[in-house]
Amino acid sequence: VDADEQEWNQKYQKLAKYEIEHKKMPSAKGQSSEIKSLGTWCAKQRANYRDGKMSSQRISDLEKIPGWYWSGPEANINELINFQKKFQRLPKQHSGNEDEQKLCNIITGFRREYRKKNLDEIWIKKLEEITGWFWHKDEKKKTQPTQSHPPPSPSPTPTKPKPRLVIKKSH
Fold this sequence. Notes:
By secondary structure, this protein is mostly helical. Helices cover 53% and strands 0% of the residues. The protein has helices spanning 3-22, 33-50, 56-63, 73-87, 98-115, 121-128, 137-140. The chain starts with a helix and ends in a 31-residue tail after the last helix.
């Protein structure tokens, strides 16, 4: 094993451990130099992938990490929109289909970032336009009123504060 391969394997192991411990990918804007270094390494892997400079083995290895993603929010949202249009529903975690499970992981990530107030307003709006989208499980139980039942009259409820706008660049 050459030095490059050994270094890649070490970073990969650190990334896998980080994702298990933190349930997210590291950011190049992380708080510690180790997190920044790992986040920068991830960005480099994505660039190598986009440029066709990555072996199929490395692609496969990275895709084994549950929180791994190749592209930013826009591409992931487009995949969700296409899935919903094709199947008239959101992906199901236990479908047995690997691609559908990956979309479920993407959804989980969006919901987690929303709860943390780290999700950009533009992505929030795009996700909320997807038929059947919900942020919390209790929202899922709400159904559209049927023809035989009139819609309930609106009751005064306290308004939730808007999530703060966070500008994040994805490369």
